[in-house]
Fold each of these.
Amino acid sequence: MILVKLNQANFEYDIYSLIKAFYPRENVGVTAEDKTYDEPADMVFEITYLPDSVRIAGKGEYSVDEVFAEDYADRIETKNRLKRKLYEILAAHTKQALPWGTLTGIRPTKIPLKMLEAGGSDAQIAAHMRKEYYVSAEKIALSTAIAKRELALLNRLDYENGYSLYIGIPFCPTTCLYCSFPSNPVAAWSGRVDEYLRALEREIEYAADAFLDKHLNTVYIGGGTPTTLEPAQLERLLCKVKGSFSFAHCLEFTVEAGRPDSITKEKLSVLREQGISRISINPQTMKQQTLRTIGRRHTVEQTVESFHMARALGFDNINMDLILGLPGESLEDVESTLKQIQALAPENLTVHSLARKRAARLSIEWEDYKGYQMVNTQEHMDLAMDYAARMGLEPYYLYRQKGMAGNLENVGFAAEGMAGIYNILIMEEKQTIVALGAGSITKRVFMDGQARRCENVKDVAQYIGRIDEMIERKKRLFEDKA
Ligand code: SF4
């Protein structure tokens, strides 16, 4: 265990995240209290905030004692200086450089995006990201290229009058090993899905009424797995959405079909008839053995069949999600998956780095899986980039999560004109997203860039029973002038 003792509570989470990025498999404790941990610490740091300086002292493996001047005039600057100094110590000791440097947040593209909006040049962005955050040349180039594409796509939106709609279907055929989303086994809930839809319809009615004067720009139905709904239920939901909102300003309508074991021709036909412009069919891997390990009860053949079925029905914008760093997968396995995806030629490809989330089965049952190799390196990401390029797909959105394999990133690639705008909106907080369904989070974005949120309860039964309260929460969020 690595223990960091502070003389006062300040920047604990930033310190924790940076150390965790260097030591992903170690337990890390950061505390300003005299806290005791069950595990003995084999590395101890003491960070002392002094009146005009900060001292970092290491014991055990890290025998360092460094003091740097600090005037505390700007909290963000203080945080960045502290992270840089800590990074230098950790990088020197581990002989490792992190691709994203000291950036531990989930949206590294925010920095180049903000600088581009202010008229910054590529050279200015590169100098800033290198000097302030120690970001590698590859990641500077990637995030700047993505920020430019984001900017071009976001320019199509009307921030002031536009908004987006998210609808969550929190049911799945089975629960994947790494899942941290609202997901419930559909078999156990099949008797109450209609009740769930009724509650959703109440929220849809509220949103349609409250946003009557605004322009609906994008719609995303995710989850969970929306195609766990029966064809008639899917039709009921889509007809309700189509009948409740004006689609005159809508740029895209995505349904995340997701799991191939939930997709049928009948369901795809319903999506097609209702004018869905973009769907996702997510293999995660094309290696059968891994699918079994991660608890996805579908076959590689089902993925291929679903894809061909969607094509035959006329879907011309299909996304496929992959995860790198899955248990037991080698670089050759990843390449084999990418080759099979290339043969299908989707218009969108989203490449995730496996993230170990606290609530996921992977963390809860960690003892059973920690013997597996779960590797994701820059080489894996480069391979994915290379295949995406061969498919004619360009990177257009990027985000990071806590506990990601290899401390890398998730990247969305798309063919020209096929990018999912909603994916950028959810990351960049540029437009209000009204989110309906259990576990969904509504985000109200103000014109000055500030955002405020309100959450729906995650538990499906609670959501159904407390639907009036969920609507009230949104009313309060949107009526509040502040
Ligand atoms: S399909 Fe997605 S939402 Fe459903 S269990 Fe798997 S990761 Fe979770």
Note: The chain has three domains: 2-94, 110-143, 162-471.
Amino acid sequence: MERFHDPVLAAEIVAFLVKKPGIYVDGTLGGGGHSLAFLHALREAGYTGQSLLIGIDQDDAALEEAARTLRGFEAHSVLVKGNFQDIETIITGVCGNKGLAPKVAGILLDLGVSSFQIDTAERGFSYLREGPLDMRMDSDAPLNAGDIVNSYEEKELARLIYRYGEEPRSRSIAKAIVAWREKNGAVGGTKELADIIRGNAYGGEKVIKTLSRVFQALRIEVNGELDVLRRALCDGIDCLDDYGRMAVISYHSLEDRIVKTVFAEKARSDWGPKGVAMREPLAYGTVVPVTRKPLTASLQEIASNPRARSAKLRIIEKIPRRDHHE
Ligand SMILES: C[S@@+](CC[C@H](N)C(=O)[O-])C[C@H]1O[C@@H](n2cnc3c(N)ncnc32)[C@H](O)[C@@H]1O
């Protein structure tokens, strides 16, 4: 049987995050690979008794798989169906039920989709597999890829393919989709869409890039991926205990830019308007970067898990609140 999903940079993440007993949150549970690594590390350090893992995913199939992966750790883990944009409410709710203070030692967000989601043809994530135009991570969500492909106006389609796919041929692809709709009624599935894209991409290796970019753009729009990220990062940081850490793995530049920007904003102290000499800042930064540059996977990991190729891992640490001198 194919593996559900191989966790990326798992050893590095555990080494950087698991420092003490406490509450650990895996906001993108997937098949539970990273969560299992957390729980093993906590057990090896003798911390399990005073620790809790909260796993969040919006995909029912992921939650089912994670429950299987984490069998044996039921007493130390709580799995929640939800969107990580609600990370604060979820943490407060779970901690409230358990009588724990909602102060978190570590948070992981491993962004995007899992191998299982991509490899399941009926989910419609892959241009390599014939399936419906779905692409929803949460199958209860109202909007799917077919709604977008078959109802957005040409300009809207072009804008989204450019913005979320950074695809230079966005306009001609949008035009071809709309022409297809006018002729045939609707784009029927992933294969039909892939054929339309192929017919309007530059040749050679660029075809594959264009296919990936358009499918990525649709996936981001369907799941509101970039819209929810900023809030999850800010609220997640608020939930961290002093010296608690947050690790985020991103797989493309649009996500990574948001992570980098939010982490930099949170690290910066506010010195007020330029030109005004201040003895201390209006507000101090609340986090520090743990590594100067983002970490990437080793060649060895990439050889066994090609998905790790584009991974960038950024980690910050929450610093104790510094108050102003009276
Ligand atoms: C890259 S996979 C995570 C794999 C996981 N780390 C593992 O070891 O198996 C990303 C997972 O996050 C979930 N996900 C993505 N965005 C989400 C969001 N906004 N809220 C909740 N889950 C999300 C996806 O459904 C998917 O299962």
Note: The chain has 13 helices and seven strands.
